[in-house]
Amino acid sequence: MHDNDRRPGQEARPKRADARRNEDTLLDAAAAIFVASGVEAPVRDIAAKAGVGTATIYRHFPTRADLIIAVYRHQVEACAEAGPALLEAGPTPYAALGHWIDRFVDFLVTKHGLAAVLRSDSAGFETLHAYFLDRLVPVCARLLDAAAAAGEIRSDIDAYELMRGVGNLCIGADSDTRYDARRLVGLLVAGLR
Fold this sequence. Notes:
Layout: H1 12-37, H2 43-50, H3 54-60, H4 64-89, H5 93-118, H6 122-149, H7 159-170, H8 181-190
């Protein structure tokens, strides 16, 4: 059967799912390289980690800014989706909150590098930041509400305020080997009890 012989919609879904998986693999690889080497890392390093050619990356993301924005959005979505999954997995809402905050910290380490590059386009950066807040504050709020309802933490904790505090603790952590932001974030989360 030739492509022209195919009825509309036939085999379209598997290709889209494959394309999505390939893009996810590429974005995961880019995020890992960005964490290890910074957002100016060579595209060939990202391609090697993803197991694709550099042309594939440029076909999906013609500019470095396109790739950076896609990584940012991909990581926001992964962090947003992790919240409900962790809450369901347990063992307690407080444990789920702690695991989610760990993922959030991982995201923030990458985000700070991404944000530095994106700040040159202030309108674009503001749009991405609003997207970040719209997707992640409700996830954090749900985790906090569940932990408070279970009697594991105080009930007067605002999700935005907690996320802002965690974010502030992460600033500069990637450039100062004497500073362990993850340890301090752990102390903050322990203080929610």
